[in-house]
Write a structure and sequence with these properties.
Elements lengths: L8 E6 L3 E7 L10 E4 L6 H12 L7 E6 L2 E3 L2 E4 L5 H4 L4 H9 L3 E5 H9 L5 E7 L3 E7 L2 E2 L16 H5 L1 H7 L1 H19 L3 E5 L14 E3 L8 H20 L6
Parallel strand pairs: 1-4, 4-7, 8-11, 11-12
Antiparallel strand pairs: 1-2, 2-3, 5-6, 8-9, 9-10
Helix pairs in contact: 1-3, 4-8, 6-7
Organism: Ginsengibacter hankyongi
Protein name: ROK family protein
Family: Belongs to the ROK (NagC/XylR) family.
Length: 253
């Protein structure tokens, strides 16, 4: 029987350019170094699942699966996947598909949510942003995931959302100097909107930031993001225990 305190976790990070996987223990410690393969083109559900299955074969003996996906996930269904082509993924049941090809129970969240679970301190209101192919966000209070918001697709100028304003393509188009000027503006907006206790910045473009950051802003390593798979399952077990307590409350003397 799987509980919060047992089971090895296959943790998968589905990105716009690469798909990574590793096996973790319940404390989020790597039991093997992660492996990665290029995200297929086109990144259709079938092709992405084939890559995940190939990666999973390198990690025998896992008991459950956690995955981060670059889009909006609701009840296991993909609602948006802007960097993989939403039309191909619309309403695709990714949880069910993973369970079918891997034969293990699975949980799926947005990829920034997975990274946020891995790196936050667990104290106060903490915001995670990822600067990769696109712009990702995760909001956590005392280490617990809040409902996911696709801030990336909210307008930041008259003609651009956050993805188009500071995403990887735009960095290459406008260059480092202009991109950093935009990043300063974005951080100022996030301060006002969220009034966070701490902001974490991760992703391939995080290393390009060249201005001084506030003391409550942390650059987080990309490697650690995949560890969020352990925290995701920990929260799932705790939520299930809480639901069980509501249905069958224990008698207190």
């Amino acid at each position: 029987m799987l509980t919060e305190n047992n089971g090895k976790i296959l943790s998968v990070d589905i990105g716009g350019s690469h798909i990574k996987a590793t096996v973790l223990n319940v404390a989020g410690i790597f039991l093997q170094d992660y492996e990665r393969l290029p995200t297929p083109t086109p990144a259709t559900p079938g092709k992405v699942l084939d890559v995940i299955k190939e990666l999973a074969q390198k990690f025998p003996g896992y008991d459950k699966v956690a995955a981060g996906f670059p889009g909006f996930i609701k009840d296991g269904l993909v609602k948006t996947a802007p960097n993989l082509n939403t039309a191909d993924w619309a309403n695709f049941n990714l949880v069910k598909a993973l369970e079918e090809i891997l034969g293990k129970p699975a949980l799926v969240v947005n990829d920034a949510d997975l990274q946020g679970l891995a790196v936050v301190s667990g104290k106060g209101l903490e915001l995670m942003i990822t600067l990769g192919t696109g712009f990702g966000t995760a909001l956590l209070r005392d280490g617990v995931l809040m409902p996911h918001l696709e801030i990336a697709h909210h307008p930041v100028t008259k003609n651009k959302d956050y993805d188009a304003y500071i995403g990887e393509f735009e960095f290459k188009r406008i260059g480092k100097k202009k991109w950093n000027k935009r990043m300063k503006r974005v951080i100022e907006i996030l301060k006002v909107v969220f009034n966070y206790d701490r902001l974490y910045i991760s992703g391939g473009s995080a290393k390009e930031i060249n201005f001084k950051l506030d003391d409550n802003i942390v650059i987080a390593g990309n490697r650690d993001g995949i560890k969020g798979g352990a925290k995701l399952w920990e929260q799932e077990h705790r939520m299930n225990a809480w639901k069980q307590e509501i249905v069958n409350p224990t008698e207190k003397i």
